[in-house]
C-alpha cells in the first residue's frame, strides 16, 4: 500500500481577543499536523515569558523532532519539552503556573498523540472518530460550576475564575489529575496515543475555541468535518464567532470568556 500523505491542507486561526496575541499555534505539512492550545494564565507563573512564547517555542521544537518520521510521538513530545525548558533556565520552571499548552500531533500514517484539550477528529467508515483528552474538564468541577453561574465581564465571574485556576493548577501533572505540556518531560508519558485506520479522512485538529462549534451545540462532529473540509476551517471559526457574538455575556452558553483563541487544521489522507 502506498504511503499516506496529507493533501488539500487548509488552516485557519483567530485570536479570541484583539488586545493580546493568540496562544494557539499550528503547523501542517504532508506528513505531520501539529496544533497547540496555550493554557490561559490567570495567576503568577514564575516565568518572564508568556504563554504565547511558550506555545510558539514548543511548537517549533515539535516540528523539528517530528521531522524524524521513525520517532515515536511520545518521544517527540518529551524531547520538545526538554528543549524548551532549556531555553529559559532562569525562570522558575517548578512553579505550578509555569507556561503550558495542550498538544495534538497527527502523522499522515495515522499515528496520533493528544495531551490536554486539543481535539483530533476524522471521518471513518462508521462515522466520526473523535479523540480528545477529557481529564482537564474533569478537574475543579465545583469551581467550574461556580464560574458558570456568573455572566462574562462581571466582578463575580472574575473573582470565581481565580479559585478555579488554582484548583486546576493543583491537579496539573499529578496522579489523579490531568496532564499537559509544561516543563516536566514526564507529562509526555501520560498522553493519549494510538493510530487511526487508513480510511479515516478527512481529519481535523482543533483547539477548544474551534471545537466550540460542537461543545456549544451548534452542530455535531460529522457536520463540523463536512464544513471544515468543504467550506473551510475559516468558515467553521466564523460560525463559532457569530454564535459567541449573539451571546456575549454567556447567558445561553456559559463559558469563561466570550471568544477563545480558535485554530482548525483540516486535511485529507491519500
TrEMBL record:
Region of interest: Disordered: 251-270
Organism of origin: Catellatospora aurea
The name this protein goes by in its record: Protein phosphatase 2C-like protein
